[in-house]
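Exercise 3.2. Students should predict the tertiary structure of the chain below and write it as structure tokens, then compare their answer with the key that follows.

Predict this chain's 3D structure.
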Amino acid sequence: MKQILLFLILLTLVLGGCGRVSPVSGMQVTGPVLPDGEITEYAILNAGHQSGVFSMTVQHVAFRDVPSYRLDLVATTRNGAVETSDSSLVFVTRDGMVPLTSFRFIRTGGAIMTTAANYADSSVAISVYAPDGEQQQLLPLGPRTYDADQLTVLGRVIQIQGRQPIEIRIINPMGPPPGGAVLAGRLSFIGDEAARVPAGKFNCVRLLFEFGPQKVTVWYEKTGAHRMVRYLTEDGELEMQLVASRP
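Answer key:
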């Protein structure tokens, strides 16, 4: 699920690593600064019925002496008697949302899978630990390449100039294939639209994320901290709605 999301779902852009406008990309990192200590909580819906909860915590930290955001993402879902806990820890730079490292832990029943991705200037080292063994590999890293688990945060801190999709690359440490993969992706501005969720009614910017075969529409509030308000997969099977936020 969080592969979709995190999708969980979606990108924190590196414009030459520094947040400047790129005339080719038509994209700009503009802020706002994400609130330190912010916690947002969402209901997870499958086919219109709530199946779990998702939370995201943002903290301001120094990682490798670089001012960074620490993103803690936790999804808990239930399918009958089987509960799945899916948690991620991601560090990205505060100025350009460049990925630094990520960890993910999934427990479904008694099965456990974990991943670690360590980002360098031109490559990312991925380790995957699963019941059937360990996979490791080195993948190439170029401009506009983001960790899959930072994607939902991406839409909060960018602006897209024009109507042309922005080409991006997404590192998916969990795979498939085993050991992780680099996916071609696109980010498009759809328009402005109001969204009503349990937390209230919000005036939003609507963005479309495409990566591999996945398509996800995400609504972000137009003012304030630009929180993610709603998340919906193309087939309508998976949805997240904002329930509460603090501070």
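Discussion points: The helical segments are 151-154. Residues 1-25 have pLDDT under 50 and may be disordered.
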